[in-house]
Amino acid sequence: MEESSNSSEKGFLLLGFSDQPQLERILFVIILFVYILSLLGNTAIILVSCLDPKLHTPMYFFLCNLSCVDICFTTSVAPQLLVTMSRKDKNMSYGACVAQLYVAMGLGSSECVLLAVMAYDRYAAVCQPLRYTTIMHPQLCSSLASTEWLGGLITSLIQCSLTLQLPLCGHRKLDHIFCEVPVLIRLACVDTTFNEVELFVASVIFLIVPVSLILASYGCITQTVLRMKSAAGRRKAFGTCSSHLAMVIIFYGTIIFMYLQPAKSSSKIRGKFVSLSYTIVTPLLNPIIYTLRNKDVKGAVRTLVMGNALVSERA
User: Fold this and answer.
1) b or e along 66-80 (b: 16 or more beta carbons within 10 Å of the residue's beta carbon)?
2) Residues 6, 47: Cα–Cα separation, whole Å
3) What residues have CB less than 8 Å from 240, skipping those under 6 apart?
4) Over the stretch 56-105, which tens digit does the pLDDT of each residue have?
5) Where are its TM segments located (predicted)?
């Protein structure tokens, strides 16, 4: 009993890349740079989507939601990771670990649902253009967004609560970059079969099902686009959808690798880089993909910048 309470009293040692000091220093700079860019880029998308009336459409409503999720998701991991990497003391309080566990799990699950919703929005826009505004009406968009956030909250409460019930028997060393369910399951000193099965079922619901829906949506989109007579229309449709698909492949691919395998069989160093991909890198790809390849967003940014410049000159 005394050993079981050690982790809650003393917290955890978040090892990260401490066994490779040179790599840790390089990654610190890269992660800091990527994190700042991610905050700036996603904040810009939120501001542009809210301030420009032309972007008050379902696509940009969901994109704004995605930026909110990405900002919160990467912020739940990056600051703590950077603090830990910058000092010799790798200690992380038990409360901070628990908070990070719940928040990161909830936001990650929400993004899994949201990307599937965005695929459905693209399906409606490309395959049902005449009925698009009728299908994606404001009430449906609000309901889908609420479902996304609520789904993440529920799975986080269930999954994390079950994981925290596992006795750790005094084990404090987390050989990972943040407090994550598979890592804590590996740390447990009892049979974790039930937790692994439960994690697998949750992963199927929040990973395999959304991916299947996304692939089905893009299958219909591809058929519709190939039937278009206009080459310019085909290019525009493929350009709009390819950005979303690229985001989907990177995000789901890395998370599936991390979660859809036995918790105690994954490579630790590989798992760290995989986690870096979907917690640090993917949130940056959102603004890059949707701004560099989207004329509407680039035009809105130019309009806002020029408008602010004119206001400043008059002032």
Assistant:
1) bbbbbbbbbbbbbeb
2) 45
3) 122, 125, 126, 294
4) 889 889 989 999 999 999 999 999 999 999 888 888 888 999 999 999 99
5) 26-48, 60-82, 94-120, 200-221, 242-261, 273-292
